[in-house]
């Protein structure tokens, strides 16, 4: 019997040695399975946004900013105590997929298996990362003004009802910074 060839480097190799750090902010990206533009459908996009903002999804961690694009989702997440990023992402993907399938029964998977994450360094400007994240619809040419795009949010927005926020302002936010 021939030996099993080694796996080529990939997602597993990238994750080896990584540790989830509570209190750390992560820039996370999840894509839909086969990059299908599921969230171009307003019903699915609205359902995803509602599922994402459900406080039960965030018992320990905090969603600081997010944007939903037609075929992917970006989020700035502050990881809470006693929680790992893989556990949080598993919960996020399964709960949002369940809500989406309930709203519009799909015969396909919603999310691709993997996700991309980048831990922000302590000296990274959190507000700059949030601005970059929520500007995705502008860069993609979906809208001319971010206020015209309905599927995004951030905890620093004035005038947003507190119950729609996923978390209070982050401790790293510079007080002199301009609002998003």
TrEMBL record:
GO terms for molecular function: sequence-specific DNA binding; transposase activity. Coiled coil: none annotated. Residues 21-136 form the Transposase IS200-like domain. GO terms for biological process: DNA transposition. NCBIfam families: REP_Tyr_transpos. This is Transposase.
């Amino acid at each position: 019997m021939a030996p099993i060839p080694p796996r080529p480097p990939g997602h597993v190799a990238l994750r080896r040695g990584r540790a989830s750090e509570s209190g750390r902010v992560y820039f996370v990206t999840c894509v839909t399975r086969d990059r299908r533009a599921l969230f171009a459908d307003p019903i699915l996009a609205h359902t995803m946004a509602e599922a994402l903002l459900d406080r039960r999804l965030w018992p320990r961690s905090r969603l600081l900013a997010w944007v939903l694009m037609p075929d992917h989702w970006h989020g700035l997440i502050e990881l809470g105590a006693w929680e790992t990023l893989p556990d949080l992402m598993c919960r996020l993907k399964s709960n949002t997929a369940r809500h989406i399938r309930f709203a519009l029964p799909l015969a396909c998977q919603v999310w691709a298996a993997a996700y991309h994450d980048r831990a922000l360094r302590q000296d990274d400007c959190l507000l700059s990362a949030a601005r970059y994240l929520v500007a995705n619809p502008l860069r993609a040419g979906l809208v001319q003004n971010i206020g015209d795009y309905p599927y995004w949010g951030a905890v620093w927005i004035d005038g947003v009802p507190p119950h729609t926020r996923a978390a209070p302002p982050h401790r790293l936010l510079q007080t002199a910074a301009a609002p998003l």
